[in-house]
Design a protein that fits this description.
The strands form 4 sheets. The chain has an 8-stranded mixed sheet with strand order 3-11-10-7-6-4-5-15, sandwiched between helices. It has a 3-stranded antiparallel sheet with strand order 9-8-13, with no helix packed on it. Strands 12-14-16 form a 3-stranded antiparallel sheet. The chain is α/β, with parallel strands linked by helices. The two termini are about 30 Å apart. Helix content is about 40%, strand content about 15%. The chain is built from 14 helices and 16 strands. The radius of gyration is 22 Å and the shape is globular. A hairpin with a 2-residue loop joins strand 8 (about 205) and strand 9. The chain has helices at about 5-15, 55-65, 70-85, 95-105, 120-130, 150-160, 180-190, 240-250, 275-285, 290-305, 335, 340-350, 375-385, 395-410; strands at about 20-25, 30-35, 90, 115, 135-140, 170, 195-200, 205, 210, 220, 235-240, 310-315, 320, 330, 375, 385-390.
Length: about 425
């Protein structure tokens, strides 16, 4: 539970020995009871303020550095770059903006193709289309549920044979876990194709002790409201390339040339983060390890309670990978378990518990139905049988037991 909530509840508990104390936050509800069941709605991945968010937000407000930019933006960039293991970071309005600029920086343009995971949120593929390029979708592998390096190699070989290599590979670190970058890097280096890392969901994860975001030439993070840390909305581009970082800042501020008047020689974007949001992000980043540790503990409790049941399979974490477990993702074989993932989801909803199917693969989305695809069966199966369980940092053991009991009841039924 969030520290602020714990402190307030402790103060209230000192004044009374009975009753139910309820603390209401604009973003989530936490109920602690001593003699009544915990029956408030449980959300999938709500924001959690753990420490200095309010103080730092007020500091930005009182300084009158509201927008654009400001000292907290500069500090957030430095602190995030240090955590991501890169030399530079550029604070932006969204993770999608970071991906769009990253593709722009490596020269992706009209007529190009970009290989990317089909098992992802639409923002990844959308950003490719913003550049005028075309996404080519690659299936997941069974070991990581991330981009399959073998299929990437097949697609690159086919592109070379046809005389038109893809301009980039946009790898997605899905649901808190990175792709297999050693294998991907070997393949892409062989064909001279750069990698962009979409780590929107995986800040705090590592791959062989290297931080997510630092595993490719450019990394991208999201701070949307449901992410591991949040600024309410925002993103970050990270890189070791100083020229790219400078160009990203230029493009993200409407590409204004040096002049006393407004002068523009290229098309730019309104993509920079405000000082207010950066202040919140700095406070959230201070407690990133707590967010990750809490979510990993939540995953372990689910795994202990449900992992031995017939038909249940949790997202694997191979040796050398360290997932944040941003969301607890599992698949359900209805023949073995006795209920489908969708039946479980509906049962949870009836108990005021939010859950969600796994990402619907991009090649199954109407807008991308005609795009080229390599593989597809692995991601289709994860989508057909997948379920994301509540995984928020502030999820209590009492609340989690409600989730577990509802899943178990589906099996008994």
């Amino acid at each position: 539970m969030c520290l602020a909530v714990q402190q307030l509840l402790a103060a209230l508990q000192n004044q009374s020995n009975s009753g139910s104390f309820r603390v209401i936050n604009p973003y989530y509800v936490v109920t602690r009871t001593m003699n009544l069941p915990d029956t408030d709605r449980i959300y999938l991945s709500p924001p959690c303020m753990l420490g200095n968010e309010r103080a730092m937000l007020l500091d930005a407000f009182d300084s009158n550095w509201i927008a654009p930019l400001g000292p907290h933006v500069n500090a957030f960039e430095q602190e995030l770059a240090a955590r991501a293991g890169t030399k530079h970071a550029v604070a932006l309005s969204s993770g999608t903006a970071a991906i769009h600029l990253a593709l722009n920086l490596i020269g992706v343009t009209h007529g190009d193709t970009v290989l990317t995971s089909t098992f992802t949120f639409c923002a990844t593929a959308n950003a490719i289309t913003y550049t005028g390029a075309t996404p080519v979708f690659i299936d997941s592998d069974l070991e990581t549920w991330n981009l399959d390096p073998d299929l990437v190699e097949q697609a690159l070989a086919a592109g070379k044979a046809a005389g038109k290599l893809p301009k980039a590979v946009l790898a997605v670190d899905i649901v808190g876990q990175t792709a297999d970058y050693d294998r991907l890097s070997r393949v892409c280096e062989k064909y001279g194709v750069p990698i962009v890392e979409d780590s929107a969901e995986s800040l705090g994860a590592t791959y062989k002790d290297r931080p997510a975001g630092s595993l490719a030439s450019i990394g991208c993070f999201s701070f949307n409201g449901n992410k591991i840390i949040t600024t309410s909305g925002g993103g970050m581009l990270v890189t070791d390339n100083e020229d790219w970082a400078t160009q990203a800042r230029f493009l993200a501020t409407q590409a204004r040339d040096p002049a006393p008047h407004y002068e523009h020689s290229v098309i730019g974007y309104n993509y920079r983060m405000s000082n207010l949001l950066a202040a919140v992000g700095r406070a959230q980043l201070e407690n990133l390890d707590t967010h990750v540790n809490n979510r990993r503990a939540i995953f372990r409790r689910y795994e202990r309670a449900l992992g031995s049941l017939p038909g249940i399979r949790f997202m694997p974490e191979p040796e050398g990978f360290y997932s944040t477990r941003w969301l607890t993702l599992l698949t359900v074989d209805p023949d073995l378990f006795g209920a489908s993932g969708n039946e479980i989801r509906l049962a949870l909803e009836a108990e005021k518990i939010e859950s969600r199917p796994a990402w619907k693969p991009m090649h199954l989305q109407p807008v991308f139905a005609n795009n080229e695809l390599w593989g597809g069966k692995v991601s289709e199966e994860i989508f057909a049988n997948g379920l994301c369980l509540p995984s928020g940092t502030a999820l209590t053991e009492i609340q989690q037991q409600r989730v577990i009991d509802t899943v178990l009841a589906c099996r008994r039924a």
